[in-house]
């Protein structure tokens, strides 16, 4: 009798649970439907009766983006044009002319050129501005419009008009399918040490890393420096495949925890590894994120590689694309990921954003937790991957950080290139006539690097009618310029390395910049020295 009562009680509880869940689902669905209906009726009223014309697409785009920005920076809406760009980033191939670009008011500015492809063959250079395509002026066009002009059917020809340092030129180029190389550089540093750069995790990343590894192995590589600095991440699956290259089959690489049960997964290495013995140093910095952190975290947790550099970005969130109507898409955060030891390295807690100030707290503010690697070393969660060896590189101050976000160095490199067109080979290239004074002098006339103080002064001056202020304008402006130059001069060496690297791309493409980095990069030098000393390398990976 007691068993029957117990069964009945359990049945009642189950029914109550189902009814509650059903009611909760219906209630939530009703709320969603209600809010959509409110927005629809509001939009209809505005469209019919508002005094000025309303652009439906623009209005809705703004409404959607303003809604999503309250969540996290990775949850985004893509209109029809943006879907194509996102697809290129994921798949690693597109139809074009082999350039990266900036969209500016006067047209499309070339920021980099792939060696041997259409733009390069046509003699197009970094810094050229495409001002018209097929006699269609590009002036004052939106980025979404400009992005369409260099796309089309493979084999089709397009006529470009370029502005090169004030001179107009016409070039005909042929569109072709272009594969984005996620591994732009892989070379031997000496007879034993190989160096591979991975710049993104697109769908071809693992194949390209594998190809680069095999190439260097044939050249005698017995030690590897794997550079993930400035790599913003990408495909979760590609990060798992690349981790698998250096970890045994069947090892846990990463796990994800989501609100939807089917999106909570445990990912293990499925393939035979490339190499379980080769000593590896993985380089990371504050711009290594997401998939880069999955690879670095997995190799660190299994004590398979020494992680060197600066603490990584701290993006422990996973996104997925969802198809919407009319060719649009939503990329939304669906889960958090955890390294093999159980660490979540997410830095910012977007769920607890301060409603009043908009400030996002850090998980580390409430304390960090310790975890153990396979050898028993202590590692921590709550804010990126901490390197096993932190390098002491020059830290950019606020003014230098602001400078590096502008195109000032890019513009100066182009200016330098046209002043020094005659050059020698990559091997004996000399930065003649280059010094820091030349750059700071150039900044006095370049308008891209503007400090907060300069911006505020310009706004105040533009609204002022007081004669004394008008007279003092030139002196104050000069003083502010001198102040920012004095501030960035504290990072002189850091800035000069950036300038030289940018100049090298003008003469010798990206290959030249990477070759320059091999000889002048402090972190690469430190990684090379560590791999040269087997005892120190091994001790880093032992229990601490």
Automatic annotation (TrEMBL):
Pfam families: PDZ (PF00595), Peptidase_S41 (PF03572). The keyword Protease applies. The keyword Protease applies. It comes from the Bacteria. GO terms for biological process: proteolysis; signal transduction. NCBIfam families: prc (TIGR00225). Belongs to the peptidase S41A family. This is Carboxy-terminal processing protease.
